[in-house]
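Dear colleague,

Thank you for sharing your sequence with our group. We've completed the structure prediction you requested, and as agreed, I am returning the results in plain text so they can be pasted directly into your records. Please verify that the sequence below matches your submission; if there's any discrepancy, let me know and we will rerun it promptly.
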Amino acid sequence: NAEYMGVAGVGMLLLLALIAAAAVILYFFLTRRPTPPKIAIASPTIPSPPTTINLDQLKSHDRKSILCYDPTTFQYLGEVKALTTDEVNQRIAKARAAQAVWKSSPFEQRKRVMETLLRFLVENCELVAEVACRDSGKTMVDAMFGEILVTCEKLRWIIADGERWLKPEYRWSGLMNLHKTSRVEYAPVGVVGAIVPFNYPFHNVFNPLIAALFAGNGIVIKVSEFTSWSADFFLSIARQSLKANGAPEDLVQIVTGYGESGHALVTGDIDKIIFVGSVEVGKKVMEAAAKRLTPVVLELGGKDAFVICDDADVKNLVQLACRGVFQNMGQNCAGPERFIAVGKAYDEFCRLSAELVQKLTYGPPLRSGTIDCGGCCLPQSLKRYQHLVDEAVSKGAKVLAGGKIPESSEGQFYPPTVLAGVTTDMLVAQEEVFGPIMCIFFAKNDDEAIAIANNCEFALSGCAFSADQKRAARICQKMVSGMASVNDLEGVTYLSQSLPFGGCKSSGFGRFAGPEGLRGLCYERSICENRFSFIAPSIPQQIAYPSAGQGTSFCAGLVRLLYGTSWNIRWRGLVALIKTSLPSGHAKSQ
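Please find the predicted structure tokens below.
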């Protein structure tokens, strides 16, 4: 019998798998659309013969242009112009002129643009990933996850569901307006300005671009001076997709430069600003935008907590934890930085994490597919990482792996590092690391783990792991954060593009992704309209000018009739309305 049950169980699993596969095939069959246009974009060029630069050249270089280089080899990639204020304003004007046409475009055309983008990305994912790797230093695997997959999913969601969330939304008109319809319309704000960081040069451009275009806007994007080489290539992808579908190419503009260029964008003729970056710069963006009352969305980073309960399967969690913290060398807005192990889970998690991290390799990622970790994009970040580690060690933390800048290196590398015994009074526990450092805390129980998780100015995301899913869910519910994931990396929330992305406290405010992010690039317009065209508005005689003296009694009766909490009160309201409507009522007042 046991053998029979085992065979039956396997058969049932196979049947369920076949049903699921058939459902997926049917879904794609029923939702298939015409093949979008194919576009071709030339790969960005690299100067030949190859040369390298050094950091002294960067420091002495004038700010009229940007020296571009591969952070893992210091290979020179070229120069990009740093735009002046006038040049930024010219690009804003071009986007605005194009948006005047695009704002009334049909959703079908917008979908075709998105489908063209998606087709190019699917067919050229390796090329796009390689360009992003060369500019930012990440590995191809990191790029496939953080640049390609999430962008494809965003495109898929917006093609499938975007129109639904931008169509007029009808709402109940209320008791006073039963003869009317009420709706909210979502109109494009106009031209969106986005200032994006270096960590994911492709996705950071296309994340706001996709939503802005689909909502009917133009967009001007200021890219990081540390990843400007790839910007023109990414711009060509967007513009060719627009051109192939009869849309104005000038809808998308790229701005390269330093602080002056970013300030020009924020203070220019922009209708909404999206800023992704540090708290310090985010405050400056708010201050500058306030002069024109330009609304802003601020995504200012995070320091996500990763709670490991004492009943969790630590052995299987270590790979997940390391992927989370060392993905893109820790240069992630939503990525775990604080690993809080409860009770007996602490020692095992420390030991297994150290054993794995000590085996990781780092180096120029485009030279070998076996490199685990790439380089750090900012040259100044290495000394900052070292300062955080040294300060933590001086207060009692222990380095279990890494923890020292390599003495000889051709690129900007910091070894994957594991710090144990971290406490909340250390800088590494409070400042956003944005680098390859795993910080492990000990907690006696769940309450202490939650207290450690919430003892931080950042509140972007978090996650908790337990053999009891309800226990993990309770911990997530008590975290102060904009997002959370139960028994999985907190970053998986971003793979659900139907969900809004954003945090609270010093992680910023406003959202992108999901209906909230899409509608956030529109302004809401509330509209009431008569259900029937022959209905004409009129003012009741009791409250008409000049006053007949019955206005107060009429309004009080109306309030009691419509909103009374008992039939007696409503009856009194009806009687009052009848009295004020009788000719005798008007006569008395005269």
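Summary note from our side: The two ends are 97 Å apart (CA to CA).

Kind regards,
the structure core
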